[in-house]
Amino acid sequence: MSVKKILFIVGTRPEAIKVWPVIEEMKQQGVKFEILWSGQHSDLVKINFNEFGFRIDFQLNSVDRKNTLGVNTGELIQKFSNFLEDKAFSCTVVHGDTLTAMSGAIASFYNQIPVFHLEAGLRTHNIRSPFPEEANRKIISSICKTHYAPTNISKQNLIREGHSEKSILVTGNTIVDSIKLAFDKNMLDNINVEKKVLLGFENINTQNMFSNVVLVTCHRQENFGHGITNLCNVLRDFSNLHKELKIIFPVHPNPKIKLITDRILGDIENIYLIDPLGYFDFLTLLRQSRFCISDSGGIQEEARSLCVPLLLYREMTERPEILDWEYCILSKPFDKNLKSDLEKLFMLTKNRVVSNKIQSSVFGDGNASKRIVSDLKKFSDKG
To answer: 318, 315, 303, 313: which is closest to 352 by C-alpha?
Structure first.
């Protein structure tokens, strides 16, 4: 009797980055699997698929950003359901809290296919922040068979919600595995001149650049409007006060981010608005930067693992572990403290030293993928 394959459902850049080491481990352990791409981040994910050598087995049509969240959710659930209707998988694996993960989990549940949830149990305990991610991950938790919690805090969140401890496996976060793999594959070297020209900042010295480069990202839905406008205005003034700094801002292609950054920051000499980077280029810049400003979830884990000081531009975080670190400042977009928080982090990072290895195990020890695949293999072998 042939063994049913495991289906990985992927749609966004963070999913691709964090699923990559799990896929590599699946290959190492000889576990049969296939990958379904939803098309949610059509342009961004293609970069990562090429970097990671992903073979996409199935692809849905891209999500139309012009549609409402409700319309896209309904369409994705319908597309996933139609796809799964005549397929035989032992289980599906979804990651995190994206529209793709939630829709794929619901469609799998409706088709009576067990769901395994990577990065389960993250919570802010505020259903509106981040929106809609907090709701998405709680929905997935309510219907999945196994929760792969990255930390003990995540595990306790799930237990408090009534989930059985037997259904939870604390694995560590696979982002640490991704960083470890990047180091092992020697993918985090200094960026050469040709590549700098392509990326749009050829006149920055990226050798030992941590004394003068600040890396910025912003993409979350709750920062549309006021959040991104406030960030750009403060960055404009901050760059004028510190002309020795070079501020590199890979701009998310969503028009609600891109149009505002281009308008406010487009003509400032020491701010570099560039296209989104591949994962290895981004990690190279991150680990060599003086500090980072971001509203990202994954960058919290990457920055802490590499000990890159971080200004976290959010109202709250589902990763409270990072708030115990003296080099992370939570700067709330509606508190009007961003300017003073930036100056504080600027002073804190005068003597920063770049490391060539993972410096912290707060979010994992680099072996999460082994634990996850071993558990998936046990389940798959039973079927």
So the answer is: 303
